[in-house]
Design goal:
Layout lengths: L26 E9 L2 E9 L8 E12 L6 H7 L1 E2 L3 E5 L3 H15 L14 E4 L14 H9 L17 E2 L2 E2 L1 E11 L2 E12 L13 H9 L10 E8 L5 H9 L1 H7 L9 E8 L4 E2 L17 H21 L3 E2 L5 E2 L2 H4 L3 H9 L1
Helix pairs in contact: 2-3, 6-7
């Protein structure tokens, strides 16, 4: 990560870690494959440390643009809960990761798929085929297991895990994360975001309201003629007591943060946001479910604000944290800092 301080998006304060792990109980782990033409990996987000099948968390997703091959969204939409950790990988790795999630669930609960219902694996993807030899099908179940085992509140961002081969605004993208703390009534509540950023054309890049991509594109003589064909997965966590309907509303606000960075949700872009709450869990086999008092819909605006800001900040964090990577056929994506050595001057210039 660069020594240059990252701009703080908006006026809301961040949590102590400044990541999705500021939502108590949430952990993140990576498994990175860095092997010549193969530049890819797996990232796992755990809502809590308990068995996710036995203690499901409420969740919902918004498909902003559906050019993607994710697994598990249909059941999340129908039932409003997560049954596995959330996994991120490349487009051709989703089947291997889903199988690993199924194996983990059946190993912990042999009744799954027999006396009990089947488990719903949840895997999101972006296409890292510019840097990664995606046809090598390098992602295996062991990479999911390694990412799961390494999950912790303190985790790396940038060119790691699922973000290893990702590109963002024609620069190196990857994993980014952020958090915001808001007051609802008399309670301090946290919203955290983690993104797998793999979208955008350079002329569109906007950082904290500053369209610096225009100048960078002029330097490279780049244009917007090539369509946006990337994707982004946005995972939003909160400790606010919300139900699945409210979480769907929260997830939609991730689109506001995405748009601020310059995305137009292009035809070939897979832009998906999922939100979950750690405030309560749904026991697997109880007849009745006890829910805490939920935040009133009329009091959701601070959480919407926090979601938009944390997603925007997480995208900037992905760019800020990434390192330059060379992969398939000598394709290279420069990090923001390698591509723009005078970034500090540009940012200051835009604020004066």
């Amino acid at each position: 990560m660069s020594a240059l301080p990252m701009p703080h998006i908006g006026v809301l304060p961040a949590g102590a870690l400044g990541t999705i792990a500021d939502v108590a109980g949430v952990t993140v782990g990576h498994s990175t494959i860095d092997n010549g033409a193969v530049q890819t990996g797996v990232t796992v987000i755990r809502p809590h440390r308990d068995d996710p099948y036995l203690r499901k968390v409420p969740a919902a997703a918004s498909v902003i643009n559906g050019f993607g091959k994710s697994i598990g969204l249909v059941q999340v939409e129908e039932l409003g809960v997560l049954e596995t950790p959330i996994a991120l990988t490349n487009t051709f790795g989703i089947a291997a990761v889903a199988q690993a999630q199924i194996r983990a669930a059946t190993a912990s609960n042999p009744q799954v798929g027999r006396e009990w219902p089947t488990v719903n694996p949840l895997v999101f993807e972006c296409n890292d085929g510019y840097l990664n030899d995606i046809q090598a099908l390098a992602v295996e179940g062991k990479h999911y297991e390694a990412a799961l085992d390494s999950s912790a509140p303190d985790f790396k961002r940038g060119s790691v895990g699922a973000g290893r081969g990702m590109s963002c605004f024609d620069l190196k993208g990857g994993i980014g994360s952020a958090s915001r703390v808001v007051k609802v009534a008399s309670s301090d509540l946290t919203v955290g975001a983690l993104v797998l950023a793999n979208f955008g054309r350079l002329p569109m890049l906007t950082i904290d309201g500053m369209p610096i991509g225009r100048e960078l594109a002029q330097r490279r003589r780049a244009t917007e003629a090539k369509p946006e064909q990337g994707s982004i997965i946005m995972i939003v966590a909160t400790d606010a007591p919300l139900d699945a309907r409210q979480l769907k509303r929260l997830s939609m606000r991730a689109a506001a943060g995405l748009a601020r960075t310059g995305s137009v949700y292009g035809h070939g872009s897979g832009d998906i946001a999922l939100a979950f709450s750690t405030a309560w869990t749904v026991p697997h086999d109880d007849d009745f479910i006890a829910t805490p008092p939920l935040v009133s819909d009329a009091r959701l605006d601070p959480l919407f604000h926090a979601c938009a800001d944390s997603v925007e900040q997480a995208i900037v964090d992905a760019l800020w944290s990434a390192a330059t990577v060379t992969g398939r056929d000598a394709h290279t994506r420069l990090s923001l800092h390698d591509a723009v050595p005078d970034l500090e001057r540009l940012l200051k210039q835009r604020t004066t």
